[in-house]
Amino acid sequence: MSALLKDRRALVTAGASGIGRVIAERLIEADARCMVCDVDTAALDAFTSTFGKGLAVRADVSDEAQVDVMFDQVEQQLGGLDILVNNAGISGPTLPAEELSLEDWQRTIAVNLDGHFLCARRAIPLLRDAGGGSIVNMSSIGGRLGYPKRAAYAAAKWGIIGFTKTLSIELGPLGIRVNAIQPGMVEGPRVERVMREKAASAGISYETLQERAFQRISLRRGVTAEDVAALVVFLVSDAGRNISGQAIPVDGDQTSLG
């Protein structure tokens, strides 16, 4: 991994904790110069204490003004951009569509889909000026399968696939590759929280719901943030130089969502 991405400049949204933090760490291990944004101040402080000040910025990717400020800092700190990882997203509520408020719907779409657009729009000129580069958009298994009681989340994650494929066509002639990753059940507090909400909604225990979920996965296990990060590094490196416009699952072959 060492020097695989030497001198490449990367931005990972929601990169101070969770999957984003692991992605940023693996990019840095591959010798990329990596900045992150997040809305979690404590996580940002922890990131800067490890990797240095100037490499983290507080920004809500659904806010156009904040995204503009963030990219101004990216240009100032990195001098350009070669890699954008659109990782920021929220789970949204676990409710039947008829009970979902317009406010919750709009907030979920704003962070998960509008945020990808706003960041990509600012990144594209920088990637073009760099002579090419790579965008990785974080979709979900919810962008591959129907997802009961998660209508807003699924709609956003399916939207990311259309956005990815369209950008790939537009930007391919510029040497900019665009792909999406569709993680399945990624071990960690976020997935556990969603599953506990679903278990409560269904009137069953968390353990029962988890066992049922594993029965829908060919490998009978969840995936880790490391699995996702490894694919990101592959896609943005020269090893993935002819991969673009793809939606790639990392889910152990999950066949359905309940």
From TrEMBL:
Domain of life, source organism: Bacteria
Keyword terms: Oxidoreductase
GO molecular function: oxidoreductase activity
Keyword Oxidoreductase annotated: yes
UniProt xrefs under SUPFAM superfamilies: NAD(P)-binding Rossmann-fold domains
Pfam families reported for this sequence: adh_short_C2
Keyword NADP tagged: no
PROSITE patterns: ADH_SHORT
Family: Belongs to the short-chain dehydrogenases/reductases (SDR) family.
Protein name: 3-oxoacyl-[acyl-carrier-protein] reductase
Native species: Afipia clevelandensis ATCC 49720
